[in-house]
From TrEMBL:
Belongs to the G-protein coupled receptor 1 family. The chain crosses the membrane at residues 22-48, 60-86, 98-119, 140-162, 195-221, 233-254, 274-293. It is a multi-pass membrane protein. It comes from Columba livia (Rock dove). It comes from the Eukaryota. It holds the Pfam family 7tm_4. This is Olfactory receptor. One of its GO terms (biological process) is cellular response to lipid. InterPro entries: GPCR_Rhodpsn, GPCR_Rhodpsn_7TM, Olfact_rcpt, OR51/52/56-like.
Amino acid sequence: MNGSFFQPSAFLMMGIPGLEALHHWISIPFCALYLIALLGNCMILFIIKKTQSLHEPMYYFLAMLAVTDLGLVLCTLPTTLGIFWFNMRRIGFDACLTQMYFIHILSFIESSVLLAMAIDRFIAISHPLRHSSILTKTTVIKIGLAIIVRGMVSLLPIPFLLKRLTYCRKTELSHSFCFHPDIMNLACADIKVNVFYGMIILLSTVGMDFIFIVLSYILIIKTVISLATKEECLKALNTCVSHICAVLVFFIPMIGLSMTHRFGKNLPPLVNTLVAYTYLIIPPALNPIIYSIKSSHIREALLRALWRKRESNR
């Protein structure tokens, strides 16, 4: 480029490499997952809103998780299905940065919400009599606002760091959505600042969230061990099963995606693509199922709602 500044007007997104001819068929399971995620999370929000007994900190945080999952689904659905159905690969530069910003914000928010849920479980098990007085409705709202502000502020420099770079003529992304390392690697300029800032933010937010979640469960296990009977231990741990599943479903693909982007240069493109889809689509689809199956209060409220609907239709 002879030192001249070049910024592409648009990027070209990628579907599933090597399987372009099968995109229409591949779209079927993607549509099913998106539908499950949309309906499942809307159902969780509806049940929590309509059931007075679920107006507790645990379910307020679950509602935050459902809203975050809906946001992630709505961020990636248009571009993913646009490629599979209509081969619409082009996305404007600014539109790509906007999508990337919201995907990363929502991912950071989900991580923070999972931490808040872990702390909620610790307080509920360690101080059951003071739980409602410690985590009041006002406190939960403040925690929610702090989580949003933290995500927005920490990631605000990322789009500007990308806009300052000069890019090569290659404009093809690795995914059907915009991801910071993916855009950054298309630059012809020095990206050390982007890499350093990205790592610092990732470690100081999602990394710290994961560490504090693990510490919360260490404290929970210590508390549970001190309980008098085996039945009390099992009952206390059973309230954490759904949350543990949600944590694993979120963090394992996220760590996998970070590793493949930073150290998986020699991996087949298909592996990177599948890990990315697992990270962004599977958790929003599985979380409502996990909580509907494992949480007796959600399950009972859902059955009551279905029963009332059935009775009203008679």
